[in-house]
Specification:
The structure holds 3 protein chains of 3 kinds. Chain A is built from 11 helices and 10 strands. Chain A is of the alpha/beta class. In chain A, the strands form 2 sheets. Chain A has a 6-stranded mixed β-sheet with strand order 6-7-8-3-9-10, with helices on both faces. In chain A, strands 2-1-4-5 form a 4-stranded antiparallel β-sheet, with helices on one face. In chain A, helix 5 packs across helix 7 and helix 7 runs parallel beside helix 8. In chain A, 48% of the residues are buried. Chain B is an all-alpha fold. Chain B has a single domain, classed as Methane Monooxygenase Hydroxylase, Chain G, domain 1 (Up-down Bundle). Chain C is an all-alpha fold. Chain C has 2 domains: 43 residues; 232 residues, Orthogonal Bundle (MetI-like fold). The longest helix of chain C has 40 residues. Classes of the chains: A alpha/beta, B mainly alpha, C mainly alpha. Chains in contact: A-B, A-C. At the A-C interface, helix 2, helix 4 and helix 7 of A face helix 7 and helix 8 of C.
Chain lengths: 252, 222, 280
């Protein structure tokens, strides 16, 4: 039985006068991995940036429509609170270069001015790094700056940083496109493990990755939601011709 | 990445094992129904076939979904391919069992024409081949698979023997023709089941060696 | 390609390299000459007494420049205290709001300010502060110097903040951080080295500025720590002594110049050292 955790209702997103998302209606299920799939420029990154309200930071950006997190309208509450409930990991790993690994994991708390006791901090750091599969590799070096880590490790650090805030939803924007194949498969395994504790929305144009890790897939093309369904069904018997063309490589 | 795939393959192997056990059960039952002239058992066999068809379709769908989403290569791909083809043969074997049951229904009201000696031998070899092909597939035992393929010759020989024997019965008394013909057809169904079981062994070898050995399915009869 | 062409190219290559090296060398020569010229004449008069004692009345031999050294530090220090916070904030503004029209206007103002001759800044400070207060003061000198230092701090802050990758800022936003925290905890630390070197360059620049001090801090024979009264500074002292008729004062001017050069050189070297150390 699937629970709906996020409802996107008639979303239209604009950069100035250019409409980049058209009439998107989408429901995301709790504790599942949902992939937003589509060719470059189809609006998938814009979509998740609307969910955590990063979209509005761009000049001339605005939206119409509603996004509800468990019946709470995300555009009626403080953006900062939205971003604390919904974490994001970016395409290029971006740990804060002036902070130690320890502080990087806690960065969300440090930057929001939330004070924690030493025990609480240690606990959060350890839990988050274990959840992102990085603990064993860095537990001896927590107070070094994160720049010596490999690309894959840096990305897992960014995942730990996002998880530390105990978000309800984790947005992953093409998290492995800057990584080598082994680091990629480590993170793909991690994503499947993570869905037990958090809802994952993954943006990718990599059909293989979508197939391997996701439970549900939403296929976007030119700013519109073309099809949404279980990944296994969509990849064997897609309902829309556009989806079929994308999957077999005819378009995109 | 291959962990997800490995788990899926384990689950597919479980499904095909279940299917083999259900189908071999049908083969056993088909003989018992004939021997005991049990019309109720015949009906049971026929009804069970719907379940088998659905299970077979589920297995096919799961195989395709695994290929579509997990991108299996090399041995992983061959194993799934072997399961897909085995699925077809198993479904056909189940259909033959239904045919045997239906034929049995037509002669169940009359006493057996003769004591059944060769037919149970054929049936036993069929079931053994089925079980061995699965064992060979699950345990990577290619020698077992090859040995099992050879057993099919015995089935063919028994089929010829039954044909010659039943021919004499039919020539002796025209009133025997109906029952003899029925037994003849049943024998041919078991012979077909043997051929399908041979396919299963060939697929098991293919999964691990990557080559298909095509054995000669029939020895010329005429 | 035949051998003749290759040889010609190798020769041309060598020729260009010689040109570039010799012109670079030539450009350093004036600096060396100046330092040498001043050092030769000034270094023999530098001793602890010179640094730590007060000037003698006009005409008398001897004395030191202690009040000028202290004065320079105080005036430059106050100027830095004014210029650094304002400069950093303006630098942040210019870096963060690149698209706004207002930013363009501010940039033009900053560039213009940088181009105003220091003597004009001195005159302005005279009109705005000295005249209303009816006296010369160290404070007016600091304010004038801060105008000169300001564009340097603004520019280096803006440049170094522009170098902070966009995705670092986005990562901070995505964690739900309020803007002022992002600036304090992420932007400024990332840019701290550049801002520091900009500050040091600004300080070494205004240490040597004389013209604005002519109308503002003026000078003082005595040691003065009161910001609202005139204060002596090294450049001003050099100006007064060098244009005086006393030979002893000429020598002291050279000595003071040497001290000033040493201070400025040290600050610049410190800046380079910090930059190198933080780069690793």
């Amino acid at each position: 039985m699937e629970n709906i955790i996020l409802k996107i209702i008639n979303l239209n997103a604009y950069y100035g006068n250019q409409k980049v998302l058209k009439n998107v209606d989408l429901e995301i299920y709790e504790n599942r991995v949902t992939t937003i799939l589509g060719p470059s420029g189809c609006g998938k990154t814009t979509l998740i940036r609307c969910i955590n309200r990063l979209h509005e930071l761009s000049p001339g950006a605005r939206i119409e429509g509603k996004i509800l997190l468990k019946d709470e309208d995300l555009y009626q509450i403080e953006p900062m609170i939205v971003r604390q409930k919904i974490g994001m990991v970016f395409q290029k790993p971006n740990p804060f270069p002036t902070m130690t690994i320890y502080d990087n994991v806690l960065a969300g708390y440090i930057l929001s001015g939330i004070k924690l006791s030493k025990e609480e901090k240690d606990k959060i750091v350890e839990e988050s790094l274990i959840k992102s599969g990085l603990w064993d590799e860095v537990k001896e070096n927590l107070f070094k700056k994160g720049t010596f880590l490999s690309g894959g490790q840096q990305q897992r650090l960014c995942i730990a940083r996002a998880l530390a805030m105990k978000p309800e939803i984790l947005l992953l924007d093409e998290p492995t496109s800057a990584l080598d194949p082994i680091a990629t498969s480590v993170i793909e395994e991690l994503i499947i493990e993570l869905k037990k504790s958090v809802t994952v929305i993954l943006v990718t144009h990599n059909i293989g990755q979508a197939g391997r890790v996701s439970d549900y897939t939403a296929f976007f093309y030119l700013g519109e939601l073309v099809e949404f369904g279980k990944t296994t069904e969509m990849f064997t018997v897609p309902k829309s011709k556009k989806t079929e063309e994308y999957l077999i490589g005819k378009i995109g | 990445m291959s962990e997800i795939l490995e788990r899926k393959i384990v689950s597919l192997k479980e499904m095909v094992s279940n299917l083999v056990s259900i189908v071999s059960d049908q083969i056993e039952k088909s003989f018992i129904a004939l021997k005991d002239r049990n019309k109720d058992l015949c009906k049971e066999i026929i009804e069970k076939d719907d379940y088998i068809d659905n299970y077979s379709m589920d297995l096919e769908r799961e195989c395709l979904e695994t290929i579509a989403t997990q991108n299996p290569k090399a041995e992983h791909l061959r194993i799934i391919s072997a399961i897909l083809f085995a699925n077809i043969d198993l479904e056909r074997i189940a259909d033959h069992c239904v045919d045997i049951a239906e034929i049995t229904l037509t002669i169940a009201d009359e006493p057996l024409l003769k004591p059944l000696i060769d037919l149970p031998r054929m049936k036993d070899i069929c079931v053994q081949m089925l079980v061995d092909s699965l064992k060979a597939f699950l345990n990577r035992d290619l020698d077992l698979a090859r040995k099992s393929i050879d057993e099919d010759d015995k089935i063919d020989d028994l089929n010829d023997q039954i044909f010659r024997e039943l021919l004499t019965y039919m020539l002796e008394d025209p009133r025997n023709i109906k029952r003899a013909n029925a037994l003849l057809q049943i024998s041919q169904h078991y012979e077909r089941i043997g051929d399908h079981a041979t396919n299963l062994c060939e697929r098991a070898i293919y999964a691990y060696e990557g080559t298909i050995i095509k054995t000669n399915p029939h020895k010329p009869r005429y | 390609m035949n051998e003749k062409t290759i040889n010609r190219r190798i020769f041309n290559n060598k020729l260009y390299k010689i040109f570039v090296s010799s012109f670079s060398f030539l450009s350093i020569i004036p600096l060396f000459l100046i330092i040498y010229f001043v050092l030769i004449r000034g270094i023999k008069y530098i001793n602890l007494k010179f640094i730590f004692s007060m000037p003698k009345p006009m005409g008398e031999l001897g004395g030191g420049i202690f009040n000028a050294i202290v004065g320079s530090f105080i005036i430059v220090g106050v100027a830095a205290l004014i210029a650094i916070p304002i400069g950093i904030m303006v630098g942040i503004f210019l870096s963060e709001y690149k698209e706004k029209k207002f930013t363009e206007i501010v940039k033009i103002f900053v560039d213009t300010l940088q181009g105003i001759p220091s003597i004009v800044i001195g005159i302005i400070a005279y009109l705005w502060i000295v005249k209303p207060l009816k006296q010369f003061s160290a404070l007016s000198g600091s304010i004038a110097l801060s105008f000169i230092m300001l564009p340097l701090v603004i520019k280096s802050t803006e440049e170094v903040l522009n170098l902070v990758p966009v995705d670092i800022k986005e990562a901070a936003y995505a964690l739900g951080a309020p803007y002022h925290r992002i600036v304090l905890k992420i932007l400024l630390p990332s840019g701290s080295v550049g801002i520091l070197t900009g500050t040091l360059i600004g300080i070494s620049r205004i240490l040597g500025e004389t013209a604005p001090l002519l109308f503002t801090a003026f000078g003082n024979q005595f040691l003065n720590l009161n910001l609202l009264k005139p204060m002596s500074t090294i450049p001003y002292l050099i100006y007064v002594y060098a244009t005086s008729p006393y030979k002893d004062w000429h020598n002291q001017a050279f000595a003071a110049s040497t001290i000033l050069i040493i201070i400025v050189l040290s600050i610049n070297l410190l800046g380079r050292f910090i930059e190198k150390k933080w780069k690793t």
